[in-house]
Amino acid sequence: MEVSAITNGVLRANAINIGKMQGKLLTVQEVTEVMNSQSNSTAETQEAIPKIKLVQTERNCWTAVLTKEERNLLEEFLDV
User: Fold this and answer.
1) Domain coordinates in residue numbering, the chain
2) 38: buried, middle or exposed (CB in 10 Å: 19+, 13-18, 0-12)?
């Protein structure tokens, strides 16, 4: 499965959940509109997020180099 298919599924589920929280069942067109607005804001957010740096070790392995802030965010996310 491609990342784009997963992303679209997540956006669609979020759109449907937003409608449910508002107490209504969205039409296919409304779901698509919400997905498009989410997709645009997600693209803008992803541009602002720096990419994780990878460093190749002597054993030809790649190690992720995270800042302290990135580590704290991951720990906070995983601690939920």
Assistant:
1) 1-49, 50-80
2) middle
Tokens 């997905």 locate to 35
Q: Is 7 exposed, middle or buried (0-12, 13-18, 19+ CB in 10 A)?
A: middle
Residue with tokens 């939920």, as numbered in its chain: 80
List, for residues 45-80, the tens digit of each pLDDT value.
Answer: 555 555 667 777 777 777 777 788 888 888 888 875
Q: What is the pTM for the complete model shown?
A: 0.46
Query: DSSP readout, the chain?
Result: --HHHHHHHHHHHHHHHHHHHTT----HHHHHHHHHHHHHHHHHHHHHSPPPEEEE-TTS-EEEE--HHHHHHHHHHHT-
Q: What are 53's strand-pairing partners?
A: 65
